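Example S7 (structure tokens).
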């Protein structure tokens, strides 16, 4: 492993920036590793596992929010953007983590949440205490209500977590007053990005973390910051972007951020979280003077179906090619059903309304086999790749969480219809045969904050899988190591090979070839090729169903 200083020297001699082909590991801090035994994952826990991430073979970690937060939305409700929540540790520990990562050749990307803050943020507390029309309220979107007595929300926008996107305020005597906008939970008021003070504050927050050595920012709901002037109803809004997202003005913000990040040494990067289906609209965020990369969802949303995956891959390549940005590939994250479970159901498409899918039969062996093949597929595709914590262990969604333990606000906000995202946020199993499987170290012995690990995870701990031939973890380690060593992988071209309709078959430079069989019957492997890696057992010269191989041409 080379230190980052040495890598920077190599890069300055002409190779591509690291982020064009990086493997990035997502840490959800609450559930990654608890270093002090209080049952909540923390910065000390992440630091203790940096060697694990080095051995896994990733280039960077992206850390979901670790800032001061009441955790009304798992940390995506920030009360202080410049400090670490005491439950997670201290700012000094965060700085130490960034520095230790660099020593080990690992970069750190932090999560920036600029669309909204926490209702406990001092600026929002001040806004609530101030009068309508005050400068304090102008930092957010406060409006009088409609209808008699202002009893109706100012417009018809719906919050993503359910219900109206507006919350009514009350004064000290309990008299109802203005409403404020929250596109997510009521505890997450939206900032008013038309206000120069908000822009200045976030530029300062960017510099705060850049000064502490972070290598980049993942930007939460990238397209939401600017709202359409006048906050019009969404009904009858046909033919234009939704009034709460993808407004022209958002691009100016990202151009100014890009100038800031480029003024710092090293190759620092933005990652845009973008749920945008229109390829041309999507690409606009990745123009050369805006954000360098996006966290890209189409593959995650695609069924386990060769034709659909081929289309998604082609569309992803062409939308990124419009602006010369590197594609990225994602199978799971902290908001979505773990893909071992998704691929183990009869219907493998992603379900936005997860309520409909919950509790349907899952064949975990099938899902695991497909997840292994999908890992080799994503590692072989052009561009960057994301690994969500636990993907590398083959963890599945925990669907049998007792209702009273559910923490995700979507559960309550949806009127107990959407069972939420807790099932992919269960504390990781590290070692041992008993729950909590080494999740907590240190003096404390508190149970995990979400104490629902399945007993069967005794076979899915990092310790159990480490060194075990054929384990999920060893497949990831070998795959990521080969990916790094293969000059044709990461950023660069790919070429589809003629194949049966249910087979994905493509080559990369240097004689590298990836084949994935999604059909019902085994297919013949090509001659004159050396086997580099297989996601599962091969059947002589045949590639079985739901299996992927990496090959190299030998002629
Ligand atoms: O998610 C953005 C987002 O659009 C999600 O609401 C997504 O559609 C949903 O979770 C799918 O199930 C980001 C964060 O990743 C998420 O954790 C936060 O809750 C949300 O923003 C608000 O900050």
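Recovered sequence:
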């Amino acid at each position: 492993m080379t230190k980052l200083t040495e890598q920077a020297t190599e890069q300055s001699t002409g190779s591509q920036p690291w982020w064009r082909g990086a493997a990035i590991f997502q840490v959800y801090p609450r559930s990654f590793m608890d270093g002090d035994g209080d049952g909540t994952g923390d910065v000390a826990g992440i630091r203790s596992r940096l060697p694990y991430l080095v051995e896994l073979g990733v280039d960077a970690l992206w850390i979901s929010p670790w800032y001061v937060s009441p955790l009304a939305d798992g940390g995506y409700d920030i009360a202080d953007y410049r400090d670490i929540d005491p439950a997670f540790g201290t700012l000094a520990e965060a700085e130490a983590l960034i520095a230790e990562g660099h020593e080990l050749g690992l970069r750190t990307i932090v999560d920036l949440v600029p669309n909204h803050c926490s209702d406990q943020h001092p600026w929002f507390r001040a806004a609530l205490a101030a009068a309508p029309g005050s400068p304090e309220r102008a930092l957010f979107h406060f409006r009088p209500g409609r209808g008699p007595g202002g009893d109706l929300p100012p417009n018809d926008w719906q919050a993503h977590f359910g219900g109206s996107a507006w919350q009514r305020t009350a004064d000290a005597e309990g008299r109802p007053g203005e409403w404020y906008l929250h596109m997510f939970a009521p505890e997450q008021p939206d900032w008013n990005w038309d206000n120069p003070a908000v822009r200045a504050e976030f530029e300062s927050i960017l510099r705060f973390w850049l000064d502490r050595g972070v290598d980049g920012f993942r930007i939460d709901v990238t397209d939401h910051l600017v709202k359409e002037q006048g906050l019009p109803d969404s009904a009858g809004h046909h033919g234009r972007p939704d009034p709460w997202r993808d407004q022209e003005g958002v691009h100016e913000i990202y151009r100014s951020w890009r100038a800031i990040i480029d003024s710092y040494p090293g190759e620092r990067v933005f990652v845009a979280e973008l749920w945008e289906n229109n390829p041309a609209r999507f690409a606009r965020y990745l123009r050369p003077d805006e954000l360098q990369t996006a966290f890209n969802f189409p593959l995650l949303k695609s069924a386990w179906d060769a034709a659909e995956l081929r289309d998604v891959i082609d569309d992803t390549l062409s939308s990124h090619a419009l602006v010369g940005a590197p594609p990225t590939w994602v199978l799971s994250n902290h908001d979505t059903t773990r893909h071992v479970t998704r691929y183990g159901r009869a219907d493998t498409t992603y379900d936005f309304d997860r309520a409909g899918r919950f509790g349907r039969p899952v064949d975990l062996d099938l899902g695991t086999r497909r997840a292994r093949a999908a890992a080799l597929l994503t590692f072989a595709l052009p561009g960057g790749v994301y690994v969500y914590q636990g993907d590398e262990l083959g963890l599945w969604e925990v669907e049998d969480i007792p209702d009273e333990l559910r923490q995700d606000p979507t559960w309550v906000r949806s009127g107990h219809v959407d069972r939420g995202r807790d099932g992919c946020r269960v504390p990781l199993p590290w070692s041992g045969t008993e729950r909590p499987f080494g999740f907590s170290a240190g003096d404390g012995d508190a149970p995990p904050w979400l104490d629902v690990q399945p007993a069967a995870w005794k076979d899915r701990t990092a310790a159990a899988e480490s060194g075990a031939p054929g384990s999920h973890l060893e497949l990831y380690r070998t795959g990521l190591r080969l990916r790094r060593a293969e000059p044709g992988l990461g950023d660069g071209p790919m070429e589809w090979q003629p194949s049966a309709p249910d087979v994905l078959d493509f080559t990369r430079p240097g004689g590298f070839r990836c084949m994935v069989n999604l059909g019902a019957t085994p297919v013949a492997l090509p001659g004159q090729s050396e086997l580099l890696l297989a996601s599962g057992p091969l059947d002589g010269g045949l590639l079985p169903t739901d299996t992927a191989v990496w090959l190299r041409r030998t002629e």
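Notes on this example. The mean pLDDT is 95.
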